[in-house]
Amino acid sequence: MPTDIIMPQMGESIVEGTITKWLKKPGEAVQRDEPLFEISTDKVDAEIPAPASGVLREIKTPEGTTVQVNTVVGVIDEAGAGVAPAVQAAPGVTAATAPQTVPAFPAEEKRPQEEEKAAREEEEAEEGERVRSSPLVRRMARDHDIDLRQVPGSGLGGRITKEDILKFIEQHPAAPGPAAVPAPTARVSPGQAAAAPLPPPAAEPGELVPMSAMRKKIAQRMVESVHTSAHVHSVFEVDMTRIVNLRERMKDDFERRTGAKLTFMTFFCRAAIHALRQFPIVNSSVEGENLRYHRNVNLGIAVALDWGLIVPVVKNCEEKNFLGLQRAITDLADRARLKKLQPDEVTGGTFTVTNPGNYGQMFGLPIIMQPQVGILGVGNIKKQPVVVTDENGMDSIAIRSLCHLALGYDHRVIDGAVGDQFLRAVAMYLQNWNEEIG
Asked: What does pTM read for this prediction?
C-alpha cells in the first residue's frame, strides 16, 4: 500500500513549513527513518525522515514551496510500483496536487511574467515600424534619448536585448540618436498626470535570489529587537592567560577521560552563569510593562551555520557542572549543524552567549534576542604585550593572552552601572579561574 509523506508539525505553534530540499528523487529507493527531505520553519531547520521503506513514487510539493502542516507532500510505494514524474515548480504556480500549498516567494516569481505581458501590450500599441524589445530596454532608451530603430538587435527575431542597448550607449556616448517615437497615449488631465506612478528603477546587474525562510526570520527578529530595546554595549578586556594555559595542559587528558572536547566556550558560559546569579536582573525578560525574573538560567548559544544562524538553548544551566555544560553545548551545536534540533530546543532562552571571536574578530556589538535583556559577545583570544605589576608594586612587560568581552543590554531595564558590574564579575571569574573542570 502507498504511504503518504506528511508535512510534520514541528511544535505546537508551527502551522506551516517550507520544503527547502528533497534528498531523494522519484524512483529512488528509501529506507524507513533515513533523511528524505529538508524543511524550514519559523523556529528551526530540520531533516525529515522517511515514514516507510520502499520507492519514492511521487513528489507532490516542489522545493521552495510552503505548505500547511499535515499536507501530503509525496508518496512512498513498495518496490516495483510505477513512478510519477517529479513536480516542477512553475513560476508563480504551486503544484495542483497540493491544494493547501502557498508559493514561498510569489511576488518575485510572478515578475518575469508581468514584464513579458507589459512588453507585449506596449509592442502592440506601437505605431508604424514595431521595435521588438523589453520594457527595461525601452526605459533605458528613453533615459539616454536613443531611437531604438537605430539599435541592432541580437535577440530572437531581431529583439533588442539589454546587452544590445548597453553596447550602443557605450559606442555613442556623446552623440545619442533622436528620441524614440512614443506610443500613443490617452489624454489625461494635469491632476491625473501628477498622480501617475513613477516608472520602476532599472534593474541592477547581478544575481537576484529570494531570501530563505531562515534568512527572512533572522532579518525580522533583528529589526524587531533594534526597534524594541534601547541597546547599549560595554566592552571589557579580560586576561585569559590562566585559562589558556589550563586548557592547553588538560585538553588531551580531558577528552580521553570524558569523550568531550574542552572548548573555551564552556569557560565563558560558566562565568556568565556565575554573574547571572549575582545580578538576576540581567537574567530577566520584559513582559509588557513588567519584568519576569527567571528562576533558571537558560543559555542560548549562537551557532553559525552555512545557511544562517541559529541559537539553541541549554536549559537549567545552573544545575550543571563543567562537564555537563560542555557536553550539552557540544550536543546542541552538532545537532544544529545536522538539522536535528527540535523546536523546544531553540526557545525559552533567558540570556545569550555568542562567540564571533572564532573567526578572529576583536569584539562585536551583538543584538539582543527578544524578550531577553542581555547578550554576551566573546572576541578573539590573542597574545599581546601588556604591563603587569607584581606583589611588590614593580611593573614589567609580559606576554598575556587577552580577550575582549562585549555585553549588549537593554537600557530600559539595566542601568550602565549594573551592566558594567555584571561584565566585571564575568571578567574576574575568568581571570581568577579556580573551578574544577572534571
From this structure: 0.64
